[in-house]
Amino acid sequence: xxxxxxxxxxxxxxxxxxxxxxxxxxxxxxxxxxxxxxxxxxxxxxxxxxxxxxxxxxxxxxxxxxxxxxxxxxxxxxxxxxxxxxxxxxxxxxxxxxxxxxxxxxxxxxxxxxxxxxxxxxxxxxxxxxxxxxxxxxxxxxxxxxxxxxxxxxxxxxxxxxxxxxxxxxxxxxxxxxxxxxxxxxxxxxxxxxxxxxxxxxxxxxxxxxxxxxxxxxxxxxxxxxxxxxxxxxxxxxxxxxxxx
Length: 245
Ligand code: UDP
Fold this sequence. Notes:
Blueprint: E1 12-17, H1 33-50, E2 53-58, H2 66-71, H3 76-100, E3 105-109, E4 118-119, H4 122-130, E5 134-138, H5 148-158, E6 163-168, E7 191-192, H6 194-199, H7 207-215, E8 220-224, H8 230-236, E9 242-244
Parallel strand pairs: 1-2, 1-6, 2-5, 3-4, 3-5, 6-8, 7-9
Antiparallel strand pairs: 8-9
Helix pairs in contact: 1-3, 1-8, 5-7
The structure holds uridine-5'-diphosphate.
């Protein structure tokens, strides 16, 4: 699939959503219900219209990052586990908001917590998608020392998704030749190769995620998750953001 291709119903996609996308500068809370409701509205509407098989990997950076704790003397693996648990909080917030709009979802956690959500089982995730449920992956891949970017790439490969959609939240709408916030001459690419991203150190996702996608021929679309209509356009295959392949 390339941007501009006609919409196909039932496309299987993984959307990576940063935890910080659920927060807002207007509030001190880790999760801003208004922001979550807006994103959930975009997701529910696009599911209704395009019927994709959509899985979301939600991050946890609005609550905790492993490296933060490490800097404070907390054991890294413990601190990463705290980060993974943060993603579960986000996943439940997102589930609640999407389901209030009538779109069925399932949260699947990589760390077992059966009273809260189903455990991640690959074949079960695929079955939920086939039944039209939005699958929300929580707790990353369940291993410390990884990020939810890499977890999103791993799950996308496992469930044989067509593409990984990396929704940014910082107002940057794709991959640029330099940081557009620091360099006014920076230009946005419509398309770049995985090798360009690595060799030119274009910081879009962590290197582990990029090389994983390269090795597994999994294209990544980087786009501004918060721009009005962007979720629909990304899922519909419109020209938006930067395609890495
Ligand atoms: N994390 C982890 N293993 C995983 C996924 C996440 O240890 O498979 C931890 C890691 O400490 C990370 C935190 O969870 O800092 C939150 O995830 P991430 O930083 O990817 O969230 P985002 O930046 O997307 O909000």
